[in-house]
Amino acid sequence: MAAVLSGGKTLYYFLFTAVIVLIGMAIMVEYNERNLYIFYLTSENAIHSGDKININYKITNTSVVPIFHTIIDFKLDKKMNTEANLREIAYFGNFDRINFSKEIICKYRGYYKVGQVRVEIFDPLMLYRRVINFNKEIDITVYPQVVPIKQKLIQSQDFFGTLKASRRTIEDRTNIINIRPYIPGDQLKNIHWKLSAKRDELHTKEFEQTVSNKLFIMVNGQNEVNIDLDREELMVSFVLSLMKEVLDEDIKTKVLLNDGHSTVIEGSSKSDFQGFLETLTSFECISDLEFSSFVNNHITDQYIDESRVQNSIILVMQTIDQSFLDGINTRGQTINIFTFTPKTADAREFVLRNESKVLRFHYIDQIMDVTYGK
């Protein structure tokens, strides 16, 4: 052994070669890391729940040195689904570019970021590794599905028929639209006294006429164990589809969300729909407040007992139980509750037993099934 170490050259050549190889592999991986670039784009930036988008990734090796072994992980939000493989193993030749296309199913509404890619680079001998995280994110908006609700389904509900059939108008005294000469029969309170004195002739003010009906929709976002995301999505889709119908009819509407922030959205025409769409896109069931308490807090004089306004109240919720009914105080108001069809005989019996002139139950899944044509 001593003779080999003192005079043999083979071992030194082997050690020298091994050191050169190790250094070369390390330099190669570092060089590959500096010369790998990615570019990606999406087919759409705004879609509706249930739609698909394509994400195209273009990964380029801009150097003369090949990349012999690469593992590529494409990262997605846990609510986004795909049948495509999110892990790829690739070889890049010199000045090579490889395109990857992933079809993503966006089942649930929300604001997402896509484009995060993790790339692991190895040398030919798999001795060294470099990890590159590409984080150039692209914003994707997935709006809830909005579908036309068949008119016959809506007309059968008292809240909608009443609002359309018995509209009354009141004067919006904050908005003067015209001043004209006085006509016998005009109300004295509408006379413009300053102008009348100036012109030595009576003039009267005309105010904008507004519809006096108002629709209140309260949506339950209470955080419950084992929340059904599919039902939650259908519930939000129903609310927006209903909103589209009533705003197209110019019905004043206020939506109150039990989302932990007590979010309130108001509108009275189709031009207001976008605001409802954007707010409900980010809606989540994360509130710690029981829905019965939320409802009781908002069925107050401020919302309900406006003397010149006819109101209708809708509650939208995934499930209903005895504790909710025991906790709610309707204050004599007729309330339409939209929920999902009971699955058991006992649950169906519970609904039938509690339905009355004050509480009326309707089923979201039945309405939306007909709407979707299923």
**CATH homology superfamily of the largest domain:** von Willebrand factor, type A domain
- The total count of strands amounts to 19
Strand content is 25-35%
Identify the strand order in the major beta sheet: 16-15-14-17-18-19
Rounded mean pLDDT score: 84
CATH class of the largest domain equals Alpha Beta
What is the fold named in CATH at topology level of the largest domain? Rossmann fold
| Distinct helical segment count | 11
Assign the structural class, choosing from mainly alpha, mainly beta, alpha/beta, alpha+beta, or little secondary structure.
Answer: alpha/beta
Identify the CATH architecture of the largest domain.
3-Layer(aba) Sandwich
